[in-house]
Specification:
heterodimer; A: about 375 residues; alpha+beta; Dna Ligase, domain 1; five-stranded mixed β-sheet; globular; B: about 300 residues; mainly alpha; 2 domains; 17 helices; about 75% helix; CP_ATPgrasp_2 (chain A)
C-alpha cells in the first residue's frame, strides 16, 4: 500500500535508487491516470490473494502477489460447505476456525472504504462482466452472500456526478463498486473505447472522490512479476524490516547477465511472462521437450524484458484420491486478505490449489487444477 | 432492486409458465388426435394455440404429427418449444441468481438438466405421456420451491406478474383457437365432434375434474366459457390470472409507495373484460372479446417494462 501510494505520488523509492525508474515508467501495469490521485480511505488493494508455496518443513515462499482482482474465494467457501456435509465427524473432532463469515467481512471492509461524506450505510455493488465470464458464478455468489446488487455495465450510469444503478424505482447511487472487471474495461471514455463492460464517465466520478473502486485501478504495478523480484527490497524500504516471508529467487531476463544465466539453465528453470496469469505462457524447464525448449528460447530472446525465471521448486504435496488409491499431488495456498482503513483481516483458511496431474506443478484451475478445503485450527 | 433483475424474474416465470402450458396442450392434443379420424387438424390447432403455427409452416411446410410434436417439445428453432422455454428460464434464473433462494435456483437448474435429457430427438410415441408428465411434475416442483422458500417482497411480485401474464395469455389463446365450438350456435349442435373439442379445451388446462365438480357430468360450451373466463376459483381462468395481476401490482404499489400506469391498465383490464356476464360476452362476440383482451394484456406487459425499467 505504501508502495502503491509512493509510486503514484513522489516515487521516493525510485529517487532513492532502490527501484529502477524504467521498472515503473515502462511498465504496462503502471496507470498514469492514477498519478496524484488519492483513493478513498487511502486503500488501493482492498482484496488481496497471495499465492504461497511450501518447500520444506518451515520453508514458505511467496510465489505471486495478486492485487488486481484475485478470484477463487467462492471455492474456499463452497469446499468448506461440502466438507461439513460429507465429513461432519471431522469437524466434531477438530476445532476448525470458520471461514463462512468472509462475505460479511468483505462487505464490512468494502463499506469502510466508502468515499468521505457518504451518508448512512454505504451502498456496495459487485460489477461483473456478465453471464459468460468464467467467474460469473463467484460474482453472483459473493453478491448474494453479501446481500448487495450484482451489476453489469448496462445497469450503470453516471447521474449527477455519482455512479448510479438502474433500479425498479429509478437510479440509485453506489458508494463502493467491487469491480470484477479489469482496469482496461472500466470506463470506455478513459480506457478501452471498445469496452461495453464498463461505464462511460466512471473514472471522472472516481477522480472526484465520489465512488470507491475496489481494487483501485493501477494496482497491477504491485503484482507484476518483474516488480516481484524487487519485493524484498520494497518491503525493507518502507518498513525498515526484513520481509517475514521469503520470495522465490528470480532472474530478470531484462538484465543481459541474468538472461544469459537463464538461457544456460533453461531446462532447469520455470520461466514466466511478466504479465501472464492463469498458468498460460509459461515454461517449466524440467518437464519441457527439446522442441518446446527451443521454441521458448526463441520467444525469450526476441523479447527478454517480457520474462522472468525462477528455480523449479519442490512444492509440497497433499494426498488426493486417484483411481489407483491415494497419491501425492503438488499444491499451493492462496489466503485472502482484506484491507480497509480499519485494518487488515486475514481469513483463517484459503484456497488450496492442487495440480491434479501426477508430478505437475501447474495448479491453475484454468489448466485443470483442483481445489481443497483448507483449515486453520483454533489454538 | 435492479430493473434488469425485475425483468429477468418476470421473464423467467413467463417462460416456466409457457413450458407448462405447452406440455398440457401437447398431452391433450395427443389424446384428442388418437380419437379422431383427421388427427393432423388437432395438431394444427395446437400449433395455433402456441402462436407458432406460422413459424412452423415456414420451417416445416405441412403439419405432421411427428414434426409438430418435436417442434413443441424440443425444437430449438421454436423459441417457444418446451426446451427453448426451459433454457430461457434458466438463463434468466442465472442472471437473477442473487434474487432467488438456493432451492429455487437448484430446482430450475435441475429441471433444465432433466428435461434436456428427457426431451431428446429420439422421443417415441410411447414416451410422450411420460415426457409431458415429467414437464408438469418439474413445474410443480419449481413452484413448490418458490412458494416454500421465497420472501414475499417485490422479487416475489415480479415473478408472479410473469406467471399470471403468461397464464392469462395462454388461456385466452386456447379459447380463441376453439372459440367457434363455444358459440351459442354450437350449443344446439351438440354433436360428438363438438364434445371432443370441449373435452380438449378442458384437458388443455387440466380442468376436467374441476369442471365436473362444478357443473356435473354434462359438458356445455356456455359453462366451459364461464368456467375458463369468469370463474375466479379456477386457477387457469382469465378472472383468476387477472385477479393475481391486480394483487401483485397492488403489492408493488404498497412497497414502492406509488401506483404506476401499468396498475391502472390492469384495473381497467379487469373492469372491461371480467365485470361482465358470460351471456354478454358471447352475444358481443367471443373472438373479438379474446382478441381485444390479448391486445390489452400485451400492452400491460410493455408498460410494465417501462414502469419498472427492465431494459432502460
Amino acid at each position: 500500500m505504501a508502495f502503491l501510494h509512493d509510486i503514484y505520488h513522489r516515487q521516493e523509492i525510485v529517487r532513492a535508487g532502490r527501484l529502477p525508474a524504467e521498472m515503473v515508467a515502462r511498465n504496462d501495469a503502471f496507470e498514469p491516470r492514477m498519478i496524484g490521485m488519492e483513493p478513498p480511505g487511502g486503500v488501493y488493494t482492498h482484496v488481496v490473494g497471495i499465492d504461497l508455496v511450501r518447500t520444506g518443513e518451515d520453508e514458505f515462499h511467496v510465489l505471486e502477489d495478486n492485487v488486481r482482482t484475485p478470484s477463487g474465494v467462492s471455492y474456499m467457501l463452497e469446499n468448506r460447505e461440502t466438507m461439513l456435509q460429507m465429513f461432519p465427524e471431522l469437524f466434531t473432532q477438530n476445532r476448525v476456525k470458520p471461514v463462512s463469515h468472509y462475505p460479511q467481512a468483505l462487505r464490512r471492509s468494502l463499506a469502510a472504504c466508502a468515499p468521505k461524506g457518504t451518508a448512512g450505510e454505504p451502498v456496495v455493488a459487485v460489477l461483473t462482466p456478465g453471464l459468460y465470464n468464467s467467474a460469473y458464478y463467484e460474482h453472483s455468489f459473493l453478491a448474494d452472500k453479501m446481500g448487495v446488487e450484482l451489476v453489469e455495465g448496462d445497469d450503470l450510469r453516471v447521474v449527477d456526478g455519482r455512479l448510479a444503478m438502474r433500479t425498479t424505482e429509478g437510479y440509485k447511487s453506489i458508494d463502493v463498486l467491487y469491480r470484477r472487471v479489469d482496469d482496461a474495461f472500466l470506463d470506455p471514455l478513459t480506457f478501452n473505447p471498445e469496452s461495453r463492460l464498463g461505464v462511460p464517465g466512471l473514472f471522472d466520478v472516481y477522480r472526484a472522490g465520489r465512488v470507491t473502486l475496489a481494487n483501485a485501478p493501477g494496482t497491477g504495478i504491485a503484482d507484476d512479476k518483474a516488480i516481484y523480484s524487487y519485493m524484498p527490497e520494497i518491503v525493507r524500504f518502507y518498513t525498515g524490516e526484513a520481509p517475514l516471508l521469503r520470495n522465490v529467487p528470480t532472474w530478470r531476463c531484462s538484465n543481459p547477465q541474468e538472461l544469459s544465466h537463464v538461457l544456460a539453465h533453461l531446462d532447469e528453470l520455470v520461466v514466466k511472462e511478466v504479465h501472464g496469469s492463469g498458468g498460460y505462457g509459461m515454461l517449466i524447464g524440467p518437464a519441457a521437450s527439446r522442441a518446446e525448449l527451443a521454441a521458448f528460447r526463441a520467444k525469450l530472446m526476441a523479447n527478454p524484458g517480457n520474462y522472468i525465471a525462477q528455480p523449479t521448486l519442490a512444492l509440497s504435496t497433499v494426498p488426493v484420491l486417484t483411481r489407483a488409491g491415494l497419491a501425492p499431488r503438488h499444491v499451493d495456498l492462496r489466503p485472502y486478505v482484506l484491507v480497509s482503513p480499519e485494518g487488515v483481516t486475514i481469513t483463517p483458511g484459503g484456497l488450496t490449489r492442487v495440480a491434479l496431474k501426477a508430478g505437475s506443478l501447474v495448479v491453475n484451475s484454468s489448466q485443470g487444477g483442483g481445489t481443497k478445503d483448507t483449515w486453520v485450527l483454533e489454538d | 432492486m435492479l430493473g434488469k433483475t425485475a425483468g429477468g424474474l418476470y421473464w423467467m416465470f413467463r417462460y416456466l409458465e409457457r413450458s407448462e402450458s405447452t406440455a398440457r396442450l401437447v398431452a391433450a392434443g395427443q389424446r384428442i388426435a388418437l380419437t379422431r379420424s383427421q388427427p393432423d387438424e388437432e395438431w394444427a390447432s395446437v400449433l395455433d394455440t402456441t402462436a407458432t403455427w406460422e413459424a412452423y409452416v415456414a420451417r416445416h411446410g405441412t403439419v405432421r404429427r411427428d414434426t409438430a410434436i418435436r417442434w413443441m417439445l424440443c425444437d430449438r428453432e421454436n423459441p417457444s418449444s418446451i426446451l427453448s422455454c426451459i433454457e430461457a428460464a434458466r438463463a434468466n434464473a442465472r442472471m437473477v441468481r442473487t434474487a432467488l433462494t438456493r432451492e429455487v435456483w437448484e430446482s430450475v437448474n435441475e429441471t433444465w438438466m432433466v428435461l434436456r435429457d428427457a426431451l431428446g430427438e429420439r422421443l417415441g410415441e410411447r414416451d410422450l405421456p411420460a415426457a409431458t408428465a415429467l414437464v408438469l411434475q418439474r413445474a410443480h416442483q419449481v413452484r413448490g420451491a418458490f412458494a416454500g422458500t421465497m420472501l414475499r417482497n417485490d422479487i416475489f411480485n415480479f415473478a408472479r406478474l410473469g406467471t399470471f401474464a403468461e397464464r392469462a395469455d395462454n388461456t385466452a389463446r386456447l379459447l380463441d383457437v376453439k372459440y367457434y365450438v363455444l358459440l351459442p350456435s354450437a350449443q344446439a349442435v351438440g354433436t360428438t365432434i363438438d364434445n371432443v373439442q370441449w373435452e380438449s379445451i378442458l384437458r388443455s388446462v387440466s380442468a376436467e375434474g374441476a369442471y365436473r365438480m362444478t357443473y356435473g357430468q354434462e359438458v356445455r360450451p356456455r359453462h366451459i366459457a364461464q368456467f375458463l373466463i369468469l370463474d375466479p376459483r379456477m386457477p387457469r381462468s382469465l378472472a383468476f390470472a387477472v385477479g393475481k395481476l391486480v394483487d401483485n401490482y397492488g403489492y408493488l404499489a404498497r412497497t414502492y409507495g406509488h401506483r404506476m400506469p401499468s396498475h391502472e391498465m390492469t384495473d381497467a383490464l379487469r373492469a372491461t373484460y371480467l365485470d361482465r356476464s358470460i351471456d354478454t360476452i358471447l352475444a358481443d362476440g367471443l373472438h373479438e372479446y379474446l382478441q381485444d383482451f390479448l391486445r390489452d394484456l400485451a400492452a400491460i406487459g410493455t408498460q410494465t417494462e417501462q414502469d419498472y425499467r427492465f431494459y432502460a
